[in-house]
Specification:
The protein is mainly β. About 0% of the residues lie in helices and about 50% in strands. The protein has no helices and ten strands. The N and C termini lie far apart (about 35 Å). About 30% of the residues are buried.
């Protein structure tokens, strides 16, 4: 089981990014999938969750209306579309499969700064 995150980078406040999480070793259709983030000096926090098979989604209050989680079962990939980014969104972003909750990828750095 492997999760590989990508798509992070440096973006100005108000900008957008789309993160991808490519899963291998299992089918994402069999698991709830989530995005977490961890800022320096802070605990890892849940940002968005997609309940299998992907119709129901949940978001942290801090990102509601700005972030959207989605999945492609054909590509076995989970996405996080992030709009109206704020400096406080700066963090390393990780995806996680509830079915294999101990498995984490390397994460992808998102930096929001002018």
């Amino acid at each position: 089981v492997q999760l590989v995150e990508s798509g992070g980078g440096l973006v100005q406040p108000g900008g957008s990014l789309r993160l991808s999480c490519a899963a291998s070793g299992f089918s994402i259709s069999s698991s709830d999938m989530s995005w977490f983030r961890q800022a320096p000096g802070k605990e890892r926090e849940l940002v968005a969750k997609s309940v299998s098979p992907g119709i129901i989604t949940n978001y942290a209050d801090s990102v509601k209306g700005r972030f959207t989680i989605s999945r492609s079962t054909i590509k076995n990939t989970v996405y996080l579309q992030m709009n109206s980014l704020k400096p406080e969104d700066t963090a390393v972003y990780y995806c996680n499969a509830a079915k294999f909750f101990r498995v984490w990828g390397q994460g992808t750095q998102v930096t929001v700064s002018s």
